[in-house]
Write a structure and sequence with these properties.
VC0802-like, binds adenosine-5'-diphosphate, binds aspartyl phosphate, 36% helix, alpha/beta, Carbamate kinase, eight-stranded mixed β-sheet, 16 strands, six-stranded antiparallel β-sheet, 13 helices
């Protein structure tokens, strides 16, 4: 069995969906589970519905905008008589029904019930279009298979149950299903964290002991920097699982950080390839691979916040203080991307995906003195040297830097 993942960029419009057919014909698609994300920007647009629902209950305009986009795409791919129009209309009426009947005030729960429509709709469109193009496949609802606890927006996979659900899976067919989604034991939708479709594909690959997994991207593969920001970025032909975990953990957004470990555990090779040039080999991540070419890898994370924390009672930054601080970070789901501990202070770079920073500050200020610099940039370089570090820092306002093994990190305040 193979697992392919097509992200939002690869299914963003009618031409892109037509290109998926081309990619599958070029690469082969026997015995394959095809995992699809929501089209283009749909997840962000669905997030607007959630916000409107909470602010003033005035969500119809947002829904109609999404409906219009999707129906424009449908009209370019199908004849009006085809059943897919009824299927997609039903999802939009289910969305309205949910919003009208919902009694819960739990933001994260509501978020997941709404945002999940993006992948349900896109996977139906892709599945129907592939069938129409002769790539015969079965659409499956991944919520029947991937089970999580009820940590809405960041579901924790219940691995034993999920593996059991895949036990009698017929591995001789082609399937299309949703990335990003799972269900709790009440069958409510739970999402796996933003950009979590790569992780979904890895969960499926793990459970089916897949031969390989391919992620199709708008870039040639994993590069030594994001080509959007670094014009001279080069393709990495091979990388180890460990190196990929490091790159994605520090923010190389080409792969979701949770993707690699399930693959590594079952030694399933991962190929990251271009959906624009599907005949090219891209990057291979597999057991025994070492980074090739061995060149410095740059990761830039913007909108990071630098917190420097010291105690009010002159105590050192030791176990008790650290445990209090990290407990708060964990409860508020704030990710630490750099950590520097000194005797009387600790500096943290944090990423505030869920808008919990002000709550964290409020809770830490009870016991600690805080210095906060918001919206700084964190550069991480793997395999760097003194010359590169010097070049990166020159004429910049450096707030903090550290070198640990192969990883050099520097925090820069761009606003000065
Ligand atoms: N090291 C890197 N190598 C390649 N692409 C990278 C890297 N770091 C960040 N990217 C960005 O990742 C993007 C592809 O990932 P993403 O947007 O999540 O795709 P999708 O949503 O289609 O899965 C590229 O367009 C590129 O700008
Ligand atoms: N649609 C979800 C899940 C996802 O992984 O999307 P993509 O594969 O386009 O990054 C999101 O935007 O977060």
């Amino acid at each position: 069995m193979n697992v392919y993942k097509f992200g939002g960029a690869s299914v963003k419009d009618a031409d892109s969906i037509k290109n998926v057919v081309n990619v599958l014909r070029t690469s082969g698609y026997n015995n394959t589970v095809i995992v699809v994300s929501a089209m283009g920007n749909t997840t962000n647009e669905l997030e607007e519905i959630v916000n409107s629902y909470f602010v003033n209950n005035n969500y119809s305009d947002c829904i109609e905008k999404i409906r219009k986009n999707h129906f424009e795409i449908l009209s370019q791919l199908f004849d009006y008589k085809e059943n897919i129009f009824t299927i997609i209309n039903k999802y939009f009426s289910d969305l309205y029904t949910f919003l009208k009947k919902n009694k819960s005030q739990n933001y994260n729960f509501i978020y997941d019930q709404i945002v999940s429509f993006g992948e349900l709709i896109s996977s139906q469109i892709v599945s129907n279009y592939l069938n129409k193009s002769g790539i015969i496949n079965t659409w499956i609802d991944i919520r029947d298979y991937i089970k999580t606890d009820n940590t809405y927006r960041e579901g924790k996979v219940i691995w034993k149950l999920t593996e059991k659900n895949f036990e009698n899976f017929d591995t001789s067919k082609v399937y299309v299903t949703q990335g990003f989604l799972a269900a709790d034991d009440n069958y409510f939708s739970v999402t796996l964290g933003r950009e979590g479709s790569d992780y979904s594909a890895a969960i499926i690959a793990y459970c089916l002991q897949a031969e390989k997994m391919i992620i199709w991207k708008d870039v040639p593969g994993v590069m030594n920097a994001d080509p959007k920001y670094f014009k001279e970025a080069q393709l990495l032909k091979f990388i180890s699982y460990e190196e990929t975990i490091e790159l994605s953990f520090y923010g190389a957004s080409v792969i979701h950080p949770k993707t690699i470990q399930p693959l590594q555990q079952k030694e399933i090779p991962l190929n990251v390839r271009s959906f624009i040039y599907p005949e090219k080999k891209g990057t291979i991540i597999k057991k025994g691979a070492t980074i090739d070419p061995l060149i410095p890898c740059f990761i830039l994370k913007k909108d990071i916040h630098l917190l420097t924390i010291s105690s009010r009672d002159f105590s050192f930054m030791q176990e008790k203080n650290l445990s209090y601080i990290f407990n708060k970070l964990s409860v508020l789901n704030i990710k630490v991307t750099m950590l520097n501990i000194a005797a009387v202070s600790i500096s943290l770079c944090v990423e505030d995906k869920y808008n919990n920073l002000s709550k964290l500050i409020e809770e830490l200020e009870i016991f600690f003195k805080l210095n906060i610099i918001k919206n700084v940039s964190l550069y991480t370089i793997r395999h760097s040297n003194a010359e590169i570090q010097h070049k990166l820092k020159s004429n910049k306002n450096v707030l903090l830097e550290q070198l640990v093994k192969n990883t050099y990190q520097v925090v820069i305040n761009d606003s000065l």
